[in-house]
Amino acid sequence: MRNLELLGHKTSKVTSSDIEGRSFITTDPESLTVYVAFEDTNGQIRVAATDLAPGDPSAFVEIGRSTSSGIVNFTFLADLQVACLCTFNGDIMLFSKERFEKGEEAMEIIGSVDSGIHALAWSPDQDLVVLITGEKKVLEMTQDFDTITEFELHVEDQGEGVQHSVGWGSKETQFHGTAGKEAAQQKVDTSKFGTSNDDDFKPRVSWRGDGTFFAVSDIDPARSARVIRMFNREGTLQNTSEPVDKLEQALDWRPSGNLIVSSQRLPHRHDIVFFERNGLRHGEFTLRESSDNQQKVLEVSWNADSTILAIWIESEQSGKLQKTVQLWTTKNYHWYMKQHIVLSEGRDVTGFAWDVENALLAHLFTSSGQYHRLLYTWEVFTSTSLDESNSGYVAVADGSQLLLTPFGYQNVPPPMYALKAVAESDVQYSTFGPDPAGLQVAVLTNQKIQLFELPVKGHGAAAPLGQLTLPKIDSSNQSYAGNFIRHLCWIAETRFVYCQYDEELQTDMICIADFTSDCDLTVTATPLDGNTGRIYFNTTTKDLIVESIDGSVYSVEFEDNQPLINKVAQLADFCPWIATARVGLTPEESEFAIVGLTDRSKLYVNEKLISSEATSFFLRGTWLVFSTTSHSARFLSLDSFTLETLKLSDEASDAYDETSRRLERGSKIVMATQHKPSLILQMPRGNLETICPRAFVLATIREDLKALNFRSAFIACRKNRIDLNILYDENPERFVQNIRTFIEQVSEVDYLNLFLSNLRNEDTLVTMYRRGGRTADQLTPAAGVEKKVNSICEAVRNVLVELGREHYIQSILSTYVRSSPPDIESAMALLSELRETNMSAAEEALKYTIFLCKADLLYNVALGMYNFPLVLMVAQQAQMDPKEYLPFLQELKNFEKYYQRYKIDDHLKRHEKAIKNLSLAGDQHFDELLRYMQAHDLYLIAIEEYAHKKQQKLAILNVYGDHLAFKNSFEEAGIIYTMAGNPAAALEAYRSAGCWRESFSIAKQLKYTDEELHGLAYDTIEYLKDKRRFQEAATVAKDYAKDVEEVVDCLLKGSLWKEAERISYTHDRSDLIETHVKPGLVEGYAQMEDDLDEMMAQFRKQTARLVELRTRKPEQNVDNPMANDESLDNIDMFSDTTSMYSQFTRYTNASSRVSSVSSTGSAKTRKTSKLRKKEERKRARGKKGTVFEEEYIVNSLKKLYEKASNLQNDFGNLIRALVPFDYVEEARAIQEKFKSFLKELEAEVPVIFVPLQLTISLYATLEEFEEAKNNPKVIEKPVMAKVDWELQIL
């Protein structure tokens, strides 16, 4: 679908004399010097070259002449930096520009072949040269013209690689249709094959692109016909071509190596024929000639990348014979004539050559002594309109035909097409008109511009609108009018813009061509400062820009019909493909931007580089789409960025990324339709593929939703497998407000069911269809998304009920089923109602419901509604086995109402409902209720149901109390026993719970004797002492045991020294001071001192170990997780093949690539719950030498800090109790000791509590390893309480 467009054109005058014979052109690929060799009218050979004239590198300067005649070959030898010229009479000459610049003779004759040189060709690496002498001998020589081999050209041998047929696929075995078997027996008499009348009877030589073979074409005297022979690099004959009648002299071996091209003149047509290396024919195509205007093939030539075949012909043009060049390409096995180079004023093309490096650069020499440099590019001819009415026509030039296909409506695979426009001569270029629909096309030929009107959808023919004759060449325009027209743009209804090269000014002329309804063309030319590389016109925005070859971009505006050319931008490099667009978040803020693609795959927007791997691009609405060398399509939304922020997303693409899509290898963009979300791609082999990228589809859906065109959006989602949640998520408020419109537009029940069944409590704009390549972390779900399904179902259901419940019964059922949680019971209730009025409709609706839900679930719901007719209907429609449900239903029918419901609820495991119905079944079932209550722990519900039945309630409470006592919930059991009026059981429960207040209250109610109270008191005191509740024990001893010594003993054990002293004096028991208080105080002092010493020793030991750990790391390497696995400690035998880890590597820091990759690669496989639990146990132990030791020590020290903080009050109370009893020295000593310990603790806080270094988990994932390294674990610093515990008098 691509056309060959003339991108750049330059000319230079080589000589003022006329040229009649063939001329030759060669180039120096390093310095880009162009050499031209030609014969003047005096028969002298003249050689000219560029880069010699001061100030004008493109001017030609003659560097040498020779009296020899008949140029056979002219090639630049890069190694020798000379141009080698060979003549027909056998002379071999070298022309050196370097010697010429030194003032020496440029020409040097290095040898001559006596019999003459009839053909010559250098190998692609220029190490070898092959000559065909006048004696029909093949001479192979080195670069220094030393002979390697010499042999006869015409021999009877067919070559070493001759094919031997065994009959498979031969003519005799093939089907010949109506011709019958006789056709298989017919033999072709090759002895009658002869030469073409157009043959020049000269041999030709051509090398394959890799230099391993060369082919020689010459007339074999023994056959009197032309034969092609293939030789290897050593000159050994490999194959001979099969006999071909009227084979002509043209010969060239395709650089890619698969085909050898020549020509064949047949009585009824003229073919370009192809041969394989084995000499067999391999297809052909026919030249576009008529019986009254036949074409004579002079030469054929492939370009450097084998994509274009140039055919140099002589044919009748404007009533006279003229030598021209046709450029052909192939796709899908069809050959297209893309260009026909016809010079103005009847001038001949006397020399043609492709550039050796730039495959799209051609060099031309004319009969008037003019050199032309033609730079081509591949271009898709389509309208630049961004309007939705654009039909999407793409035009393909093929000779005099313009093949057209409207991709907006149909995709016709090439070489077929929807319609064609036929021009009077070969098409050189085409451009679409300024109408938004793109239905007008202008066709440029060598003499005219023809205008056509196209049908809207491709149905019909292209209607001619008129034709414009190009201006005649006169004195006012002769410097440019005779040159090729380039970059034709139809910018207004009666105006064209194009450019032509001006030979005098050596620059391009911007030509404004106005025409009238009478087809009179008026041209105004304005010179451009520089050479034009591209002219682009945007039909929608009316932007007309001109890009020069240095990347400068100019805007062209018209004032009083005069063009005003102003520079608007400077691209980083010349871009053969450009377009204009608007970039901005809103239409008001949008800015003018130029999109450009270089031939080195760099895509720019203004000066900003967007991608370095782009191969083609297209603008669709506000989207920029381009293909890449990594075989993907990238999509950039121009209305989601400003010019400053415009860029591709750096995030890796996921399955839902709308900014990227994989493509077939080598795919390139043809176009994107404006009114459909379609992108047309062409594969390297030529076939087309239409895809609907998610970016375009979502953009179309969003536009439809914005216009409240819900049906179109729904169909697009359904067709392109877009999640239907987007209909709501795109704008929830808009959808809810227009939900009736949605239902009226999408009125089909199946469509509504599909929509409802796809609903999820999820914001798809965050999880799936994120704009601009953003990640889910960068987006926030919409408010209320957790209730989304329920709200939509309810709103849809309300509208459907209004519009007709019976018609939309399936959709209404869907709203119940899709609710979260599913409201199956309401759906079944609706079915039950419908069953009463329309049985058949109810059955159909039930079938649909069974499709949505499991039949067993519907059966259980219907059974739970106690609706037996509905149960039977579900069972029948679900085709359940009657043996499974009928006996159970018959059994239920025999029970009375509430007991029946109890059985149903129990069957459905609805235990709460079951016990409620059982309570309503009568008191005769109370014992069964108690058993059921105990079996299913339904005590509270039973209490609630029997709240007004005292006898049953008390029985339930007693059973509940026993249950709580069995579960060791003694306090709650005591409360329940109290409610049940069972004080003895309540007292026992409270006593077991340690609730002494309640126990003694009930004991008083039970009128316990003093002896019983004393026994209860001492039991309670022992219990409280075990629980270290000493103050409460002292209270019980005082109030109920009346034992002062026991009270003092309890207070002393609780370190309540002052209170013990007070009680002793209060009860006139001063003797207890000596017998209990002082000894208890001394014992408490000794215990606290021991505790303090133990804390200090622990602190100093652990801090020292912590310093050791942090200054000298343990031997195990954290990067080697297996080093911490204790399970390896006892392994004393490993397999000889164990290479990933060894016992040696466990204890060394040496790392290897294999082991590190293995450890990280297998980290995920070790992440199991069992191993993690095992690791937590190790972490808690904090075994010495493991990575967990540091964390264990720090946590242990933190607990020690907290313990010391809590002991401040205890030390303060002890000191204040010691001093009054004259233990002043002991109080002072322990105060100073504890004070210094606290200071030591405070000083070490900044040292101890720093980020941990050794806590990487053995079973951590790679992500957790990285997280641990980047964000080390920190244990929070302890906070010491500010307590005034010291005694100042000490």
Lay out the secondary structure:
Elements: E1 3-13, E2 24-27, E3 34-39, E4 45-49, E5 61-66, E6 71-77, E7 82-87, E8 91-95, H1 97-101, E9 107-112, E10 117-122, E11 128-133, E12 137-142, E13 147-152, H2 181-185, E14 204-207, E15 213-220, E16 225-232, E17 237-240, E18 252-253, E19 260-265, E20 270-275, E21 281-286, E22 296-302, E23 309-317, E24 320-331, E25 334-341, E26 349-354, E27 361-366, E28 370-379, E29 381-382, E30 393-398, E31 401-406, E32 419-422, E33 429-432, E34 440-444, E35 448-453, E36 463-469, E37 486-492, E38 495-502, E39 507-515, E40 521-527, E41 532-537, E42 544-548, E43 552-559, E44 562-570, E45 577-583, E46 591-597, E47 603-605, E48 608-611, E49 614-620, E50 623-628, E51 632-637, E52 660-662, E53 668-672, E54 679-682, E55 688-691, H3 694-706, H4 710-720, H5 726-729, H6 732-737, H7 739-745, H8 749-757, H9 764-767, H10 788-804, H11 809-817, H12 824-837, H13 839-852, H14 855-864, H15 868-877, H16 882-893, H17 897-907, H18 911-920, H19 926-936, H20 939-945, H21 950-966, H22 970-979, H23 983-993, H24 996-1005, H25 1010-1026, ...
Antiparallel strand pairs: 1-28, 2-3, 3-4, 4-5, 6-7, 7-8, 8-9, 10-11, 11-12, 12-13, 14-15, 15-16, 16-17, 18-19, 19-20, 20-21, 22-23, 23-24, 24-25, 26-27, 27-28, 29-30, 30-31, 31-32, 33-34, 34-35, 35-36, 37-38, 38-39, 39-40, 41-42, 42-43, 43-44, 45-46, 46-47, 47-48, 49-50, 50-51, 51-52, 53-54, ...
Helix pairs in contact: 3-4, 8-11, 10-11, 11-12, 11-13, 12-13, 14-15, 17-18, 18-19, 21-22, 22-23, 23-24, 25-26, 26-27, 27-28, 27-29, 28-29, 29-33, 29-34, 33-34
